[in-house]
Write a structure and sequence with these properties.
Radius of gyration: 55 Å
Number of helices: 3
Distance between the termini: 122 Å
Number of strands: 48
Helix content: under 10%
Shape: elongated
Strand content: over 45%
Strand order of the largest sheet: 7-8-10-12-14-13-11-9
Length: 542
């Protein structure tokens, strides 16, 4: 509220300066007065009065620097007029000829009264207005205060919206009086709001009001508070309706019959007075409420039942119970007992309502969940994985329970191995190298299906080993055999580094492995000793 006190002091100073200007320049202003065009009327002036100025064409009027003073009655009769840097010692009228157009006052002071008889939008930037009167029944008007504008007193007699855009530290709109049965909308911070009309409608959209007076003439008026709207104190001098979700810090109840959607943080009651808050009476003794004990959620199988006990205060409150889904669960009330019956799988919200005249209504809800019945399960035996060479096939037998379950078989990669089913026999055919998963499903109506899987591996064909080097035998004969009178026949193996791995025979006789060669000693007169090495080579086996 500091800004209002500070603004009042500045206003008194300004009015003193303006008064001096008024008397100093009055003669000059009247000397420059204009006359209206033929047929043009000037609403707001008494018969015989003259006027100092009439702005009747769109444009910007007033100096770009300094201040121009105009003394006497002035009017704006055209849309699109902007007055700037001006002091009007007298009254200013916005005429109905403006229609729904716009007017702007920028750094303009009106020492008398600014009367809005026409126009759809008036913007006041900086400057000051002593009194503002809105009486434009043919057109709803929006009036915005911006910058350091100060409009000390506002009386609204027709549909209007006041928008304060000056911030916390500036004055904006001062005291607002509503005397219209039309709608007054407010947004911003206001020191006071007085509602004087019967069946009026005021929408306080956002901001804060220091004091609201719902006067004795305001019976049946409706005040709606937005979520961001706050009232410090409201005097309920008549029976009114307060709607919305805003905040009331203190309600002073001086008359019977008012109704509030929201609970005030604090109440003050005249003797014997009360107020209805969210359906319950609030008086000097406190708030009259009905309370219900919390009720926990329930889970039931189909066909099952259970019950809950309702605990309500006061005990003579009338209790009713409803189910949001009677196909799933029903709820009936007998005395203080709720009987619940589960019918089919699903959920139902059970709402318990307790009412008593003059008390706020209590509601409590809980959920009944009806679970689906458990289905019998189909089982199928496990199946082990197999490895198949490309082009090969294998079979597996499936065993399912119940035996009449419908079987299906699929391969995750038929290009590797295909699977087919005949009765209970699965035939798997390998197509190409890789792996695939064979899935067997078993299903039966009214049962939970089952499945089994096994893996089929088709290995890649192995490359044939490289051909071994051909082993050849070299035959030698030596007369100087270790055995006297014998001939030593020796065989050496070519194209192998591991002769020790071989067994060599000569004419069916096993030769002795000497490491680097094989040896057989025969008598010198033996037929083998007489054969040539070429003949002996033909007799070597290894």
């Amino acid at each position: 509220m500091k800004r209002y006190i500070r603004g009042l002091g500045w206003t008194l100073c300004l009015l003193l300066v303006v008064s001096v200007c008024y008397f100093g320049f009055r003669g000059q202003a009247f000397a420059e007065g204009e006359t209206p065009a033929e047929g043009q009327s000037l609403v707001g002036l008494e018969t015989g009065e003259s006027w100092a100025k009439n702005w009747d064409a769109a444009g910007v009027y007033g100096p770009s620097e300094g201040l121009q003073t105009v003394s006497g009655q002035t009017t704006i009769s055209a849309a699109g007029v902007e007055l700037q840097n001006m002091v009007i010692n007298g009254d200013l009228y916005l005429q109905s000829t403006i229609g729904s157009g716009t007017v702007m006052l920028r750094n303009v002071t009106v020492t008398g009264e600014l009367t809005v008889l026409g126009g759809g939008n008036l913007t006041i930037v900086n400057g000051q207005v002593n009194r503002l009167l809105v009486n434009n029944p043919g057109q709803a008007v929006t009036i915005a205060a911006e910058g350091t504008a100060a409009i000390w007193s506002v009386r609204v007699q027709s549909e209007c919206q006041l928008e304060e855009k000056t911030g916390e530290e500036a004055t904006g709109f001062g005291h607002v009086y509503s005397t219209t049965a039309e709608t007054l909308s407010l947004s911003g911070n206001f020191p006071t709001l007085t509602v004087e009309n019967v069946s009026g409608a005021v929408n306080f959209l956002s901001g804060k009001i220091g004091k609201v007076y719902m006067e004795s003439q305001a019976n049946d008026s409706v005040l709606t508070l937005g979520a961001q709207a706050e009232i410090e104190v409201i005097d309920l001098v008549s029976a009114v309706r307060i709607k919305g979700t805003g905040t009331i810090n203190k309600a002073v109840v001086l008359a019977e019959g008012s109704e509030l959607d929201m609970d005030a943080k604090e109440y003050q009651f005249a003797a014997g007075k009360s107020v209805l808050v969210t359906g319950g009476i609030v008086d000097v003794e406190g708030k009259h409420v009905v309370t219900l004990q919390d009720l926990a959620d329930v889970t039931l199988a189909p066909g099952k039942s259970t019950s809950k006990t309702v605990v309500v205060e006061p005990t003579d409150a009338q209790v009713t119970v409803t189910s949001s889904n009677t196909s799933a669960a029903t709820a009936t009330l007998n005395g203080s007992t709720i009987s619940l019956k589960a019918l089919a799988a699903g959920k139902a919200t059970i709402t318990v309502t307790a009412v008593k005249e003059g008390f706020s209504t209590a509601k409590e809800t809980f959920t009944v969940t009806v679970s689906a019945p458990a289905l019998p399960k189909v089982t199928v035996q496990g199946l082990s994985g197999i490895t198949l060479a490309k082009g090969k096939s294998a079979t597996k037998t499936v065993t399912a329970n119940p035996a009449d379950a419908t079987l299906k078989v699929t391969s995750s990669n038929p290009a590797v191995a295909a699977a087919s089913l005949s009765g209970k026999t699965i035939t798997v055919s390998a197509k190409a190298a890789g792996t695939t998963t064979i899935t067997v499903t078993a299903a039966k109506a009214g049962h939970t299906s089952a499945r089994a899987t096994f893996k089929v591996t088709v290995p890649a064909p192995q490359a044939p080993p490289p051909p071994a080097a051909k082993v050849e035998a070299v035959v030698e004969k030596a007369e100087n055999s270790p055995v006297i009178g014998s001939t030593s026949i020796r065989v050496r193996l070519k194209n192998t580094n591991t002769p020790e791995k071989y067994n060599v025979t000569l004419a069916g006789q096993k030769m002795t492995n000497r490491g680097s060669y094989f040896e057989l000693a025969v008598p010198a007169n033996d037929s083998l000793a007489k054969k040539s090495t070429a003949e002996l080579k033909a007799l070597v086996k290894f």
